[in-house]
Each structure stands twice: as structure tokens, then as C-alpha cells.
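Possible regression after last week's pipeline update?

I re-ran a chain I had predicted before the update to compare outputs. Posting the input and the new output here so someone can diff against the archived version. Not blocking, just want to make sure nothing changed silently.
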Amino acid sequence: MKRKHDPDGTENGAASQSLVDAETSFSSLGLDPRLLQGVAKLGFANPTLVQAKAIPLALEGKDILARAKTGSGKTAAYLLPVLQSVLKAKEASPNEKATRAFILVPTKELAEQVSKMTEKLAAFCGKAVRAVNIAQNVSEQVQRSMLAESPDIVIATPARALLHINLLGQALVEKVAHLVIDEADLVLSYGYDDDLQRISKALPRGLQTFLMSATLTKEVETLKTLFCRSPVILRLHEGEVEEEGEDISQFVVKCAEDEKFLLTYVIFKLKLIKGKCIVFVGEIDRCYRLKLFLEQFGIRSCVLNSELPVNSRLHIVEEFNKGVYDIIVATDENEVVGDEEDEVPEEKPKKESKTADDSAEGAEDAAADMDTKAAPSKKKKRKKPRLDKEYGVSRGIDFQNVACVLNFDLPITSKSYTHRIGRTARGGKSGMAMSFVVPANLHGKHKPTTIASTAKDEKVLAKITQQQAKKGKQVKPYVFDMEQVQSFRYRMEDALRSVTRTAIREARTRELRQEILASEKLKRHFEENPEDLKHLRHDGELRAARVQPHLKHVPEYLLPKDGAAGLTAGPQIGVPLKKSSENRIRKARERNKRVRKNAGVKGKGRDPLKMFKGKAKK
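New output (post-update):
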């Protein structure tokens, strides 16, 4: 390997300086005034811990390996020094066009996020800085034309970066002075190891490297050896982030498979959780089963998985952050396992995977099947859906203001659990994580809702509890008063019976058709009419096989005397639903009385026909 260096670097003991000095500001870091204007426009008052530590070292030209929690400001910590360097190079050689920085990320979603942050920070730099994102879902010819103009910063996944390095050769990388690998512990886990080896050989010697990661794993050590020259290591410990205000309350609920649906219905319908929520499930089919189930009760949610086009996924995340949607039902197919000791091997069920494949036909195959309803002569081989290998939800995507992460299906490792719950309690805010765990004696009792991964729930929970205890955190049991919850069971079972395999298959195909149409055929229209894109909804109803309008209303006789608070035996997990002293029928009667009174009607016995005043025609 060409770039192998001494793995032992200087280490900055950030543990001894857990808090940022109150006098530290962005202006004191020596940044360009144009960048300071961009920072001010974003509303960043003072630098976060990782920014205060990393930016001065980066401006000195040192390689940096920083470990900091997701949401701690790592993106701005490496973008600001890179932009500063680009501006200085432009001042020295104003007419020279060259690519000076490569930013490599594991997913397309993260690439889009970094691209938008670059635009915002460089908003006052005019045409002095130009960044392109070649990870987006466009053709190679379009990407090549974007790179032909020698943009200052290239944002890409390692696979896309290597593709164009091979096509354009040294012309693309000869002036590169900075390399950033964001979410470094994820990059190798996503299968980019060969790509990074080749990129390492193609890049010039002596460039400055930034490795940003949430954990220091063996993968990060590999990248450090491959790219860095005695890097400064910033170990920003968990305790420091806690001092900045991070607070995740972690709960676990032991229940049967069908009770997951029951409790989810109760939690969302009675608003036990207030705010935005990400619900993690184990399979794509399970996404649509849960979405269709919630639709029966008038609870809107949108689906996020690797089967959807990348443009749709990016728009869903953007609209979620704006508050358009409150609930996202997401899969985590590319769940990061890594080399952790507490890894629990995933058991892929034969029966369930076959069902998933059967129900996951592409939109074109479904349309062909509908057109050819004649007697089948030979059984066609069904095509498996094309899943995006660069898709990832539990890491890398900037979900904002998430109040709760609900692990509807427990992840297969404690490491993945940590990444999932990291979606909440970001930027000094508090949040909650709740996980459903199926005891071994209850696994497989309810066949329609059972998946094989729940067989290991108790073992995974033990690893999670052990790992969180090392960090000084506690996973507390949360107990629902099941006697009170049971009154909702018949409604849950009624709704669940409506969500058949056929309904799931049709909903999945319909959703895919809609998203493909919105992402591809209307792409040019949306570029010319950006306002129209705001009206594109991803949480619309998919219409289960049997719609039951009466399920949308919760009759008061189902609620306990204490209201929704009476459903839980432990501390309240959200905002309780206050029981109204009057029912809606009584309210409607009183409203009608007021209307009649205002119209001059006294009493019920008066003939309404005599109220009208008018003259007869002669």
C-alpha cells in the first residue's frame, strides 16, 4: 500500500477539557469573514466542542482523526477549514481551476446533506467556491460534465469517486490538497474497502486528511494507517456530550409480536408520545404492514427504505425535518454490524424472505401481470427489487428535532442500537428511545406478525444493557397496564386482519410506482417549479384491502377513568391525553343551541317555516 504511515499519532486528551471556553467564538478561530457570515446566517452562536478543537488544528495543516457523537457538528468542523483553504488558493491563483478537496461519505443521503451544508456555509463567497455532488442519482455523462469544469470540492461515495478518477485520470486529482472521509467507521462496513485502496494509490502524496467518526473501530484504524500522517486524535468522550445537554431516556417493553401493533396503536392514537418519531422495523414488507395498520386508525405515516428512489428518500427526510410528517416508518437493511465482540449473527428466515421477495416485485412487473391475466402457461421468474446498497437510515442522515426513536423490531447488535437511538437527543436536546422486545417463550406465537430476528431479542437486549451500563446509562423497563390496554385489542385485531399479504403487496407496488413517477418523470418539472414539490406528499393513504372508518374514532368508554395516563404503570413517557368532561355529541347539541339562539329561535317547538319573513308575489 502506497500511503502506509506510522499509525501512532499525537493524541489530544479532550477528556481533560470537556467544555468549550465561554469566550471561544467562530470569529476567534481565524476564519474568513465570508465564512463567518455564512455561519451567522445558519444561526450558529458558538462552536461546538468538536469544532472548537478541530478547526484550529486543521487550519495549521494537521491531519485529524476525530471521534464525536452524531449531531455534534462534525460536518461544519471539517467544511470550514476546507472552504478556508479553497478561498486562500483562489486569492493566490484567481484564474486557476482545479479540484482541491474530495469529501467521501458512505451514503447518497449524507452526500446530499453535506452538499447543502457546503452551499449554506459558502453562501457569501459568490463564485469563489464551487462544490458538486456526484453521488446523486444522475447519469455518468451528466456527472462527467459537472467534473469537466473542475469544481473546487467534490462530494461523493467512494465508488462514484473511483469511477471518475479512473475515467478522468490525474487531471481530476493532481491538485487535491484535502481528503475528508465522513462517518469513517461506516465506509468500510458498507463494502468500500477495495475502492478506498485504489483511491489511496491515485491521490497525490502529502494531502491533508480528515477522518470523522462516531466510534474508533478497527475500520477507522485501517483508514488511519492508509491515509493519515501522524494525525491528531480528538477523543471527545460520551461524558462531554452529556455535559452539553444530551439526554436520552431509554426504555424497553417486553411484549408478544401482536402486542407490538397494539401498543403502537395506543401510543400514537392517544398521543402518549408528542413530537416527531422514527419507527425502525426489520423488513420492507413490515414497513407497509405497519403503515397500512396505522392508516386504519387515521394515523398518517410515511415509509423510508432502500427500495425507494434516492430523490424520494431525500425529499422525505427534508420534509420530515420541516415538520410536514410526524412519523417515519424506516428499515435499516444495511445495518452496521462491524467487528464488535457482541455481534449477534442475523438469521434470515427462509419463509419470510420468500414472502418478501414475492411481495416486492417492481412496478413494471406488476403492470405486466395486470395486463396479462390470461391462464398462466408457465410460471414466470419474479425479479427481486433493486435495493440501494448505499442506503442507510441509522447513521449519516441529519434527522432534526426527533422526539422519540421507537425500535418496533430490535436491531441485531448493540452497536446498531446505539446508532439508531442517536437519531434523537441531538444538539443538546433531550429525547427518548423505546424498544419492543419479544421474550423467547412468546416468539412465534402469532404467526402473521412474526419475524425470525425476534428470536434473539433477549440476547441482544442483554448486550445492549451491558454496553449502555459501560457508558453510565440505564435501559429501564417500561410497563403498560395491559388490563387497561386490552380494551383496545379487538380494534387492533380487526385492523390487523385487514392488512393482508395481498394488501401489502399492492400497497408496496403502488407506493413504488408513485415515487418513481415523482422522482423521474416529473424531475424536470419540479426543477422548473420548485413550489410544486412542496405539495408532493409521501404520507398519503395506501388504502388497505378493507377500510373501516369507525376505527378512526376512539370512544371514551375505552379509556380508563384517569384518561390515557391510566394505561401505563410507570412514569409518563409523553404528554397524557386529558379526558374531556363532555362528549362530542353533547358539544354538538350545545353548539346547535347557540346557533339557533343567535338566529332568534326560542325553544325547540317553534315552527321553522314561520321564521322566514317575506312578501308574496301579486
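Follow-up from reviewer: compared with the archived run. The mean pLDDT is 77. Marking as no regression found.
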